[in-house]
Structure formats: structure tokens, C-alpha cells
Amino acid sequence: VVAGGQSTWSYTDSRTLTNNQAVSYTAQVADSTGNQSAAGTAYTATVDTTPPTNAAAVTGITDNVGLVTGNVASGGVTDDTSLVVTGTLGGATAGASLAGGETVRIYDGSTYLGNATVTVVAGGQSTWSYTDSRTLTNNQAVSYTAQVADGASNENAAGTAYTATVDTVA
Q: What is the distance between the alpha carbons of residues 80 and 77, in angstroms, rounded to a whole number?
């Protein structure tokens, strides 16, 4: 890297790094004759390309508006324009919970909406919930899925979509 009088620089590592490979980068300043300064503090990282093994499933959409409230069946109709999406971790595996740094990410189709709030149930199934902050409109279809992401943003595959259509017209 030639800094050219600037106070910042960057370097692109041209190697192909592999999963679980540790890297440690240091930098030195060299003058035009090759004299080098002492190396700076090492910047270390570990490559993580493996998605989490934990899975999240959408198990319900809660309708809190109108005469008919409660769970909306997948493929059903709701008059609620601000839905609460709920689910479980680990499919049917009792005691499943998130590992350190993992989050449950909620999608409507391919659109990322946000992270769910996870409730860890001791000795039982951990659950999660997400309140869709959008104001949904009449005839709007939703298709919610959940994916577990690790601290490196690797995501597992989405499960079956839980769908509904908003109907606010009498």
C-alpha cells in the first residue's frame, strides 16, 4: 500500500479465506529506502461462513383488531393492519435456544423487517415474537418467514412461509 501523504489506507487480502481460518493483520510504515517501523497492534478475526444449525419457524399471526381476534390461520384473512408474528426455535426440538450472537430475523417475502424478541423457556420450547411496524393496507398479502442469523450474518434457510391477506373493507 502506498499512502501518498494520506492518514488512511486500505488493503484487500487477495487470498481465498476458508471457514474457521484465523487471520491476524499488522501494518508497518516503510520509507523509500526500505527502513521499516515497528509493527502496529495486530487486528485479528476468524472467518465464519457456516450458517447456524438452529432453525426458527413461524407458527402464528395474531390479530388484535375487530370482532374476530386471535390467531390467523396460514393463508387466512385478517382485518388487523399491524400484525404480531410468533414462532418457535428448533422446530419441534424441546429446549432449543439461540447460541451466543444469534438472532431471529423476520422477513415478508424477501424484505427484511427486523429482529424478533426471543423468550427462553427453561426446559421447554423457546419462543419468539415480532410486531410488524408497518401499517398494512387493504388487500395487502404478507408472507412471513424467520431465519436464524449468527454474529457474522450467516443465515440458515427459511422455513415454510406463513401467509395472510389484509381485508379492512366491510
A: 9
**Residue with cell string 521499516:** 36
CB atoms inside a 10 Å sphere around CB 26:
11
Tell me: the pLDDT tens digits for 42-60? 999 989 888 888 889 999 9
- CA dist 60 and 72 (Å) reads 7
- Angle, alpha carbons 52-94-116 (nearest 5°): 50
- The cell numbers describing 55, all together, are 432453525
The predicted model scores a pTM of: 0.77
Q: Let me know: does 153 contact 113? Beta carbons within 8 Å.
A: no
Q: Which residues of 128-164 are buried (b: 16+ CB within 10 A; e: fewer)?
A: bbbbbeeebeeeeebebbbbbbbeeebbbebbebbbb
- DSSP label at 155? B
State how far the Cα of 46 lies from the Cα of 34, in Å rounded to an integer. 31
Q: What share of the chain is helix, strand, coil (3-state, %, to 5)?
A: 0, 40, 60
